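2024-03-11 09:14:02 INFO worker-7 job=invfold-0412 stage=load source=structure_tokens
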């Protein structure tokens, strides 16, 4: 057994800093020892946590994750209902300081508020649409400019549908991109009526934990650096591939040089 920091948005923020970018984390933890550790670990990775909130009288979120010999995992999470869901404290005035905003599905009210604010400012507003309530995922998708689903998350909101049809069911004219990460099969996405796909580098996976988070962080950074969707997806695929070759979640997030090497090998 090992212990490490986690969480979709938090892992993505760490991935960004490992890749040479600058990231801020806005989220809720309790005013307890675990909450202090969560924010301290993020700060040690270079993530700005000045926008995080510590809630008195609650317990910080935690997760138990079982990883199989094949690298797949089972995730069991706990979030204290005492963590106030009201997003009114979020420092929306600071969104203009960022090039890209990304939210996950774990705190819907906060995610919707931040995504809306980013779109009003003309910033890419990315939703990490992983497994969650189908109603929540579909609702949050309407607030994002880029809806980026995991394969499992897409299956939850559109069970039994082929990937392209499922993505079409989420897509609106306001979306710049609606896509799904397919693990070893790469990334499939829609822009308007057009469909695109980029393959992932061939690897032997050791541990897929946090691979999706690394992918989202790398993709967000690539967009912030001005890359179009296709090269951004290739960059994110390579970052996730490096991570999958290592045991551990957040600790396996790659450096920029490691991603460059993976891209060079893939070419």
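2024-03-11 09:14:09 INFO worker-7 stage=emit residues=267
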């Amino acid at each position: 057994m090992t212990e490490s920091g986690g969480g979709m948005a938090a892992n993505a923020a760490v991935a960004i800093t490992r890749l040479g970018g600058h990231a801020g984390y806005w989220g809720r933890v309790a005013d307890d020892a675990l909450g202090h550790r969560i924010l301290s670990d993020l700060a040690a990775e270079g993530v700005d946590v000045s926008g995080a909130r510590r809630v008195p009288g609650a317990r910080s979120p935690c997760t138990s994750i079982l990883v199989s010999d094949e690298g797949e995992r089972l995730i069991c999470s706990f979030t204290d209902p005492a963590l106030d869901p009201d997003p009114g404290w979020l420092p929306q005035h600071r969104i203009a300081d960022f090039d890209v905003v990304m939210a996950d599905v774990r705190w819907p009210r906060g995610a919707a508020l931040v995504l809306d604010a980013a779109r009003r400012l003309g910033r890419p507003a990315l939703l990490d649409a992983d497994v969650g309530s189908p109603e929540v995922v579909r609702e949050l998708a309407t607030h994002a400019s880029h809806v980026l689903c995991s394969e499992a998350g897409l299956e939850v909101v559109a069970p039994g549908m082929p990937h392209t049809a499922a993505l079409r069911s989420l897509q609106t004219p306001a979306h710049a991109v609606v896509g799904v990460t397919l693990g070893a099969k790469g990334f499939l996405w829609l822009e308007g009526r057009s469909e695109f796909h980029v393959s992932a580098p061939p690897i032997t996976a050791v541990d897929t934990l946090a691979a999706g988070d690394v992918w989202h962080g790398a993709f967000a950074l690539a967009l912030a650096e001005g890359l179009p969707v296709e090269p951004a997806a290739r960059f994110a695929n390579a970052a996730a591939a490096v991570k999958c070759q290592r045991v551990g979640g957040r600790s396996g997030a790659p450096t920029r040089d490691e991603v460059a090497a993976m891209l060079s090998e893939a070419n």
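2024-03-11 09:14:09 INFO worker-7 stage=report msg="The chain is about 35% helix and 20% strand."
2024-03-11 09:14:10 INFO worker-7 job finished
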